[in-house]
Amino acid sequence: METLGVFKDIETAGRAVDSLVKAGFAESEITSLTSVAYPDGVLVKTDGPTWFRWFALAGGIVGAVAGFFLAAGTAWVYPVQTGDKPIITFYPTGIVTFELAMLFAMMGTIVGMFFEMRLPPRGKRPYDPAISEGYIGISVSVTSRDQSNRAEEVMKKAGVLRTTAEETL
Questions:
Q1: Which of 40, 110, 163, 167, CA to CA, is 20 to 30 A from 68?
Q2: pLDDT tens for each residue of 94-118
Q3: 2-47+122-166 — its CATH code?
Q4: What Å distances lie between residue 31 and 63, 68, 69, 126, 139, CA to CA?
Q5: CATH 3.30.70 domain residues, the chain
């Protein structure tokens, strides 16, 4: 179950987050929804590990290996003898290896971006159309109706415009 509160400005939303933390809600249960990209820690701190760079690194390594085997493997399978020169040459193999490494690193970065943003969403998440108009949403993950009511009360004291409680799948 999630409780969503819609706030008019950043100050009241920040006050609500502080009040929720003081009321006993863990910061990992609180999420901010905004149409403006605020830096981490302005509303809610996310100290958890990030996998974003590892997806990019894994994509780059897979791309480099695939590029090497594509270039070197093609030259090995279809050898063209040109005098006394080697069949697998450094520069053409290096260029194809680099290009595929960069292509796969970019694809890994995009996959990591979707993974970090939790897209596509798993289950139903609360949302209010006012968030896309500049308002700020603070969502609290709760386990019971009592916690939901307590979160709504804390948000009302902080200056919430409206609250919504929804069952999540």
A1: 110
A2: 999 999 999 999 999 999 999 888 7
A3: 3.30.70
A4: 35, 43, 44, 11, 5
A5: 2-47+122-166
